[in-house]
């Protein structure tokens, strides 16, 4: 069964862990998904809900995943088994691993688009940005090789292992991305007509909030912080006891949120300045940003560098998704790292093909309204939209619900608090620890339950009010 923990790899340094975990968190979720979800869900009001979900649900929940990971020194399945050897709980670990494979399958497709856009200006400068995008994502001879390429690079990094592979890359490249984003923000907010975008992004209209918007905000918050499928259990498992989980976790959440907010600042002023609409869905950044680059001196070059960095941000995320699944195989089976990475990567590529073909290449995959009625997942959802909804919203919510119950009740919040106290000096005691325990055991599961029930059309809050009214 499990390998002895003494041989387990560890991060080389605190900054190494923070950057690798932030590298997992920061990715297409921040720069591609956050802006388009914000655009589809009404702008500033969505941003506020998203921030509330991060602060009050995701950040406290992050500590549950980190503490379980470091305590068990295992992948999600192994971590659960270490506490509850038998029974259905290990299925939750299985759900984590499956979710990793499926998120990776369509995430790799979008990452492939980002890679393709590095060369956009080489092949097609100054064509209509919308038309170019529509043709590009519908072209199987472009998107499938790009998906394959991206999976190959991801596999390569994961085979390299924790310290040499993941950590080394994250350290150099994340800071460069930050600087380039600042440059693009500067151009975007100084475009004529940018004000309307700032208004949309920063000035909330609360009448736009409904149940569906709340579900999307929570789903986005989990997705962005890589929560709900054990990625942070796995990354926490490589941490030494002297590490302060609260501080490190806090930094990860801070960086991730900052990058998402910056992505919005980069995009919305430009959307309005270019006369585009914010609710374009997954196309948003690919259509709008090239137009911003065009309005910049050296735009072609800056655009290429931007998409290189976006691809790298996506890579540090795909690496974490694959790492969860690979660490499961390495810990729990006789597979070595190399074999597990190739096998899982290969399967994930195969599962990714329908998502790659779902954007105009194959019509029944591109519009699946024949399968799901409209409005559940937006209008005329594609196979990729469905995958993102099922795995990137629902499954993460489910995973977080079950894992918070597991850590709070089965393992026990006292044990988790004990783990969090190691390496954190005197900070996590008394009232703070008590309130966290209440949060983990009651508030977090309840909130997620209410929000998830909403998706299947059950309005729990209304039901409770009716019960008493
Ligand atoms: N958080 C990443 C992003 O924002 C995506 C990601 C990586 C992820 N690992 C994950 C999402 C685990 C959910 C679970 O792009």
Concise summary:
With 469 residues, the chain is mainly α. The chain is built from 20 helices and no strands.
Low-confidence stretches: 1-6
- The secondary-structure element order is HHHHHHHHHHHHHHHHHHHH
Proportion of residues in extended strands:
under 5%
Alpha carbon gyration radius: 21 Å
The main sheet comes to:
none
**Quaternary arrangement of the chains shown?**
single chain
Q: What is the straight-line distance between the termini?
A: 55 Å
Topology:
Blueprint: H1 14-25, H2 28-40, H3 44-72, H4 76-83, H5 89-118, H6 120-123, H7 129-137, H8 140-160, H9 162-189, H10 195-202, H11 211-224, H12 231-236, H13 245-273, H14 284-294, H15 299-332, H16 337-356, H17 363-366, H18 383-421, H19 430-455, H20 460-468
Description:
- The protein starts with 13 loop residues before the first helix and ends with a helix.
- With 469 residues, it is an all-alpha fold.
- The protein is 75% helix and 0% strand.
- The structure holds tryptophan.
- Tryptophan is lined by residues 24-25, 27-30, 103, 223-224, 226, 229, 231, 317, 320-321, 396.
């Amino acid at each position: 069964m499990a390998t002895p923990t003494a041989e387990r790899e560890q991060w080389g340094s605190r900054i190494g862990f923070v950057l690798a975990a932030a590298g997992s968190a920061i990715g297409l979720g921040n720069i591609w998904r956050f802006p388009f979800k914000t655009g589809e869900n009404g702008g500033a009001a969505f941003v506020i809900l998203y921030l509330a979900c991060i602060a009050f649900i995701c950040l406290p929940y992050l500590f549950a995943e980190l503490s379980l990971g470091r305590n068990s020194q295992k992948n999600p399945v192994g971590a659960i088994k270490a506490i509850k050897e038998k029974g259905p709980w290990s299925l939750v670990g299985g759900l984590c691993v499956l979710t990793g494979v499926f998120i990776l399958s369509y995430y790799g497709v979008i990452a492939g688009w980002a890679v393709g856009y590095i060369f956009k200006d080489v092949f097609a400068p100054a064509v209509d940005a919308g038309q170019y995008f529509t043709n590009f994502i519908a072209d199987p001879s472009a998107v499938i090789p790009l998906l394959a390429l991206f999976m190959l690079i991801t596999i390569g990094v994961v085979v390299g292992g924790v310290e040499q592979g993941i950590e080394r890359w994250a350290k150099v490249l994340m800071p460069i991305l930050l600087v380039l984003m600042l440059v693009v923000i500067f151009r975007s907010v100084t475009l004529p007509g940018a004000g309307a975008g700032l208004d949309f992004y920063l000035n909330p209209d609360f009448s736009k909030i409904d149940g569906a918007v709340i579900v999307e905000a929570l789903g986005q918050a989990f997705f962005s912080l890589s929560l709900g499928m054990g990625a942070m259990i796995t990354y926490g498992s490589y941490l030494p006891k002297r590490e302060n989980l609260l501080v490190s976790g806090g930094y990860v959440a801070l960086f991730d949120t900052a990058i998402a907010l910056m992505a919005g600042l980069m995009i919305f002023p430009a959307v309005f300045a270019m006369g585009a609409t914010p609710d374009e869905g997954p196309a948003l950044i690919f259509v709008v940003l090239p137009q911003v680059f065009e309005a910049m001196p050296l735009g072609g070059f800056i655009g290429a560098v931007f998409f290189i960095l976006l691809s790298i941000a996506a890579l540090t995320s795909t690496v974490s998704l694959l790492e969860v699944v690979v660490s499961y195989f390495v810990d729990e089976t006789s597979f070595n790292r190399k074999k597990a990475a190739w096998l899982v990567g290969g399967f994930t590529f195969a599962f990714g093909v329908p998502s790659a073909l779902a954007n105009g290449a194959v019509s029944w995959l591109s519009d699946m309204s024949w399968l799901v009625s409209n409005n559940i997942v937006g209008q005329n959802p594609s196979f990729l939209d469905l995958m993102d909804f099922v795995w990137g919203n629902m499954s993460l919510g489910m995973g977080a619900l079950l894992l918070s119950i597991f850590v709070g009740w089965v393992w026990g919040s006292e044990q988790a608090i004990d783990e969090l106290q190691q390496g954190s000096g005197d900070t996590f005691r008394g009232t703070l620890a008590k309130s966290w325990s209440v949060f983990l055991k009651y508030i977090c599961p309840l909130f997620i339950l209410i929000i998830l029930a909403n998706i299947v059309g059950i309005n729990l809050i209304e039901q409770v009010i009716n019960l008493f009214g």
